[in-house]
């Protein structure tokens, strides 16, 4: 097949080499997102038409074309092309082949950066719903298994030696409770991920009059994301989903381990495979943690690597849940063998009060699981019984509160830093290349958003810490809690490592965008001139340690619970130190306005605004992109900026240009245009700043 021009045409003279094409493609795996991509495009086209950015007939052609593409894909007739790189460009380019000109308008006020994040959130939301429904099926299977085994007493094991007699029903219900908390963990992640990035565009938002609330609602999101830079950077939802799956996988591996040990000879199931697969889930989580650590804001191509670990994790966990439910439905407890066994090991079955009493209410529990009431009951049980007051639980509750208060302290320091720098424009980067101008305040507030999710995550985790209904579960829940707690710390640490990366970079002579004061800098023992941003390098470095603490605990899960204390204490101490020093840094850096100002002309930051100008002139976005690409190529040739091109030069590229174009050129003009919700224009940012100042009570 002949190579076609890439969608970014304009300023490029040659195509990529075959090796680069093979290495950078993602179509081989991200085609799994086709449904979500098409849903997003339908919603986007409908919104563009409602806002007058395309005609109703263009919208209808687009939606018709998308319907045809969806059918072709589902019939296996769609031709996926590696030279079209990914699912987004494959679908858009095929749509153009199918319906022509109208398709060129679909990418108006959208980039692949907000598109991929929207698609993947939709995919993960479905994945969570499917996983939770499989969790319920397993819970129901376990309750039914419990109902089949009235009065059976089994030895309760603590590590391996037998400890006390327990009703088998009690034993099985411990797993049902664990699974309930696993489901809640995933559902909390669902709440946090259900915000819509679409319309955040590449990073700065847009000046085109889009309605982000309309697309958000059409796609079933709670609201559009508040800060466009955060919208295209954020992958917390993936880290959280993978960590939820890893904890759930751990529980299933315990169940598998137990059934493997207790297995009857005639069983044809392979629960060992379920145990082994839990290691994959930990591996998938670690991949994402390594991927995200130290990434600068906003979109970086590294993020393309987030898909396969998530696909693997979700497929694995669903397989494990199904296998466990099948097992539960087909298992028989051999009462004779168990009774004989009870007579050894110095445990007295008669000491079990109520040996003949059936655990009441199993029918009710089954119904509650199916209706979702079970979780509420779990909540009530916790408040009725009071908090579980083991020392470690109380210590962890305190630690959570302390970390949350340090998060707030850093948020306040960042909001104050933003307030000190009203009106300052900085380059916004994607792929660490200059992309669009943004207000520094907007940029800083992206970190405040991340930290807010961090605090919420910790508080959700704290709620689970207080839930304990079943005594057998109580002794193992510590571990699930600590894993969740350390996962939450790891996500915060990854955020801080991103902030650290940025400040270290910006403090370098090459950037010189910030000057840290002496009070937060260190020197060199040999080079007298040096002033190093060590504290933030260490923040970046220590994030690895917080992730390491989590891994230690994940690996230690079979060795008894005692091993959790040291990694937890280390994680808490490290994260508090990181938060503290980041807040100090925020209070002791100066943004170098002159240096930043001088750097702004480089990189054609106003190019997207110019493309939007052409959209206002009714030129389809894809054509506008190409025209601006050619204007940029001319600037590169002449060594000038877009605003230095004369009207004649611009008209030589396309006659549509008029004098009004100069209102769109230059970073100051460009910034003023970014006025849609969540964008970097001054009114949008002022609204964000007011929101945070009042939420964090910054004036007091
Ligand atoms: N290359 C890029 N985004 C690719 C996102 C899709 C990618 N296949 C992925 O899965 O992450 N970003 C461009 C914007 C764009 O291509 O829309 C940029 O920021 O310069």
Automatic annotation (TrEMBL):
Question: Can you supply one Gene Ontology CC term for this chain's record?
Answer: cytosol
The organism of origin for this protein = Tagetes erecta
Report the NCBIfam families cross-referenced here: argH
SUPFAM superfamilies in the record: L-aspartase-like
Q: Which residues form the Fumarate lyase N-terminal domain?
A: 10-272, 370-468
| Protein name, as recorded | Argininosuccinate lyase
Instruction: Output the Gene Ontology terms for molecular function.
Output: argininosuccinate lyase activity
User: A Pfam family name for this chain?
Assistant: Lyase_1
Give the residues annotated as coiled coil. none
């Amino acid at each position: 097949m002949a190579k076609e021009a890439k969608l970014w045409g304009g300023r490029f003279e040659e195509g990529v080499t075959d090796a680069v094409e093979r290495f950078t493609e993602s179509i081989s795996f991200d085609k799994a997102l086709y449904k979500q991509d098409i849903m997003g495009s339908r919603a986007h086209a409908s919104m563009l038409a409602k806002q007058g950015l395309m005609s109703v007939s263009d919208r209808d052609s687009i939606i018709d074309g998308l319907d045809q593409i969806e059918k072709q894909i589902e019939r296996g007739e769609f031709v996926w092309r590696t030279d079209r790189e990914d699912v987004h460009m494959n679908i858009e380019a095929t749509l153009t082949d199918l319906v022509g000109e109208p398709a060129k308008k679909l990418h108006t006020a959208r980039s692949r950066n907000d598109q991929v994040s929207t698609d993947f959130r939709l995919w993960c939301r479905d994945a969570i719903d499917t996983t939770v429904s499989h969790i319920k099926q397993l819970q129901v299977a376990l309750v039914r298994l419990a109902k089949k085994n009235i009065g059976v007493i089994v030895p309760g094991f603590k590590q391996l030696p037998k400890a006390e007699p327990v009703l088998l029903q009690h034993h099985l219900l411990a797993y049902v409770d664990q699974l309930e908390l696993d489901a809640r963990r995933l559902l909390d992640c669902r709440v946090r991920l259900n915000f819509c990035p679409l319309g955040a565009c590449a990073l700065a938002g847009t000046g085109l009059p889009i309605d982000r609330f309309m697309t958000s609602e059409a796609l079933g999101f709670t609201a559009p994301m508040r800060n466009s830079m955060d919208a295209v950077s954020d992958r917390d939802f993936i880290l959280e989903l993978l960590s939820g799956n890893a904890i759930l996988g751990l529980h299933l591996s315990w169940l598998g381990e137990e059934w493997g040990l207790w297995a009857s000879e005639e069983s044809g199931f392979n629960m060992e495979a379920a145990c082994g697969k839990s290691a994959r889930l930990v591996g998938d989580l670690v991949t994402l943690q390594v991927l995200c650590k130290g990434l600068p804001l906003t979109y970086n191509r590294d993020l393309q690597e987030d898909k396969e670990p998530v696909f693997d994790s979700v497929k694995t966990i669903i397989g494990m849940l199904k296998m466990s439910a099948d097992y539960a439905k087909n298992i028989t407890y051999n009462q004779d063998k168990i009774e004989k066994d009870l007579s050894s090991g110095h445990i007295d079955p008669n000491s079990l009060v109520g040996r003949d009493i059936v655990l009441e209410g199993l029918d009710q529990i089954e119904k509650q699981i199916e209706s979702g009431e079970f979780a509420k009951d779990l909540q009530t049980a916790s408040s009725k019984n009071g908090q579980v007051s083991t020392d470690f639980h109380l210590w962890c509750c305190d630690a959570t509160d302390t970390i949350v208060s340090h998060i707030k302290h850093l948020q306040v320091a960042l909001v104050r830093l933003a307030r000190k720098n009203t009106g300052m424009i900085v380059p916004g980067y994607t792929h660490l290349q200059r992309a669009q101008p943004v207000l520094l305040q907007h940029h800083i507030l992206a970190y405040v958003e991340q930290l807010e999710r961090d605090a919420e995550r910790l508080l959700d985790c704290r709620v689970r810490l207080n839930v304990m209904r079943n005594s057998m579960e109580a002794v193992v829940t510590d571990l699930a809690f600590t894993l969740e707690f350390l996962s939450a710390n790891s996500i915060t640490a990854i955020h801080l490592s991103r902030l650290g990366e940025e400040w270290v970079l910006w403090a370098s002579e090459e950037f010189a965008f910030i000057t840290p004061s002496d009070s937060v800098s260190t020197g060199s023992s040999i080079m007298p001139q040096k002033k190093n941003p060590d504290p933030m390098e260490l923040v970046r470095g220590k994030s690895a340690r917080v992730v390491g603490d989590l891994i230690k605990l994940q690996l230690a899960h079979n060795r008894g619970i005692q091993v959790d204390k040291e990694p937890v204490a280390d994680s808490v101490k490290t994260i508090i130190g990181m938060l503290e020093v980041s807040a100090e840094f925020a209070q002791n850096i100066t943004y170098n306005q002159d240096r930043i100002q001088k750097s702004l002309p480089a990189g054609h930051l106003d190019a997207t605004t110019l493309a939007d100008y052409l959209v206002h002139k009714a030129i389809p976005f894809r054509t506008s992109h190409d025209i601006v690409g050619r204007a940029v190529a001319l600037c590169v040739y002449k060594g000038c900026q877009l605003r230095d091109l004369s009207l004649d030069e611009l008209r030589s590229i396309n006659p549509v240009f008029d004098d009004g174009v100069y209102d769109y050129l230059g970073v100051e003009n460009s910034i003023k245009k970014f006025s849609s919700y969540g964008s970097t224009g001054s009114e949008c940012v002022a609204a964000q700043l007011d929101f945070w100042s009042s939420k964090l009570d910054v004036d007091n």
